[in-house]
Amino acid sequence: MMKDMERSLSRTEWREAATGGLYAGLAYALLTIAAHAGRSMPGLVTILNAVSFFSFAGFLYFYARRMAAYAGGDGFSYGRSLLFVLKMSLFAGVLAGVGQNVLVNWIDPEGFREQFDLMVANMAGGEKEAEMAGSLGLKLMRNPLFAVFSGIFSMLIYGGLLGLLISIFVRRPADPFGGGTSAE
């Protein structure tokens, strides 16, 4: 009976991480695309970046609190909360990577080519090395798998750093008199 309750809580945890990651990643990707589209207006980009940050942090907090409530009397430790935030960031990273790939390959490929050429031109080193690095870098940026793995990696770092703070507020000690798990 106890093993079934733990298994049910684990499934609930992965489901909540996937659902929260879906919403957080979708919001992040859409706001990133909107910020890129409005890049000629720095004030708008600043506002969109702030909304992106607070929406991502809000989704992480909301779903981690929700998961803490599912844990019931078992409590929700700091480490467990941080692990949940990382799971959620993993799912969000997939969508963030897909959004980046769509932006680079379909929405504004020329804009990214210009930005990349400018970045490579500012690199130290010879012209031949810069050209070779630029060609390889642009090829990598346009690769869907690289974009998704890059999105996952960056969101794990981003979510992990936010999770260090969020987990302080989400953690709950176990109820010594509760004893059971209330997984739905």
Oligomer: single chain
Biggest sheet overview: none
Number of strands: 0
Mean pLDDT: 88
First and last CA, distance: 15 Å
Instruction: Name the beta content range.
Output: under 5%
Specify the helix fraction band.
over 70%
Q: How many H/I helices? A: 6
Write down the Rg.
20 Å
Overall form: elongated
- Order of SSEs: HHHHHH
Output the structural class.
mainly alpha
Which stretches are low in confidence, meaning pLDDT under 50 for 5 or more residues running?
A: none
What does this structure look like?
There is one protein chain. The protein is mainly α and 184 residues long. It is built from 6 helices and no strands. The protein has helices at residues 2-37, 42-71, 78-107, 109-121, 127-141, 144-170. Helix 1 packs parallel to helix 3, helix 2 (42-71) packs antiparallel against helix 3 (78-107) and helix 2 (42-71) crosses helix 6. The model has no long low-confidence stretch (mean pLDDT 88).
